[in-house]
Amino acid sequence: MIVEAQDFLDESRSLEALIADLSDEQLAAPTAFKDWSINRVIRHLHMWNYAAHMGLTDPDGFDEFFAGIAKGMAGSSMGAVEAEWCPLEGRALVEAWSDYLSPMTEAFADADPKVRVKWAGPSMSARSSISARLMETWAHGQEVYDLLGKVRTNTDRIRSVVVLGMNAYGWTFKVNGRDAPQPMPQLILTAPSGEIWTYGEAGDDRVEGLAEEFCQVVTQTRNVLDTSLKTTGPNAAEFMRIAQCFAGPPETPPAPGTRGIKS
Prior knowledge:
Blueprint: H1 4-18, H2 24-27, H3 38-57, H4 59-75, H5 78-85, H6 90-109, E1 116-117, E2 124-125, H7 126-147, H8 159-167, H9 169-175, E3 186-190, E4 196-199, E5 206-210, H10 211-218, E6 230-232, H11 234-242
Parallel strand pairs: 3-5
Antiparallel strand pairs: 1-2, 3-4, 5-6
């Protein structure tokens, strides 16, 4: 059984509760992330949840689905492709996304954690696939919390995001065309529960602070200078400056002071 599947569902339901009382007009409001509306956030999560579920349960169907996505992207934007796949807006869109969560979660919860799941890039284990969906839900949820002026109450389910962020050390430098400097910094993070999470070998390079702030930096929902994270050593400082735990081309983290809770 994959316990991260329940964490994914819980994180998704938390986002659903956050937007439960919003009107269609409010769901169209732009966030601080590339001016994506809340509608765009939910549609993006819904389509790629569908893709991950298909990658697990119907690999041939995934190939056909992704071929169509790639073809659409060649002549349009990702936003346009997502809107063509799911033209719903407002409460109807939220309902479609919400209804899909339970069957998807059940499929991943019952899967062999090591079975390979097809994806847009290299295949992943089922455990990694649903953890990635948790990460993306958590990351895109942040811009919605910020827009609505809400302080998020995190739980220890963000540990999956921490692990993805730690494992992205090499990827962060590779995607920026560089070799990852060694040694990799040690992480000493305080979980939402107060537990201390330690990863890596002790040395001269380390990142210390709140686990939720580390997650914000590696998902690029905050600039490290807008957090209380402490970095020691050049490798830790450079990692936190450009950290990227998601796939795709290199992205520039938000400038200091540009992402935060709307007052």
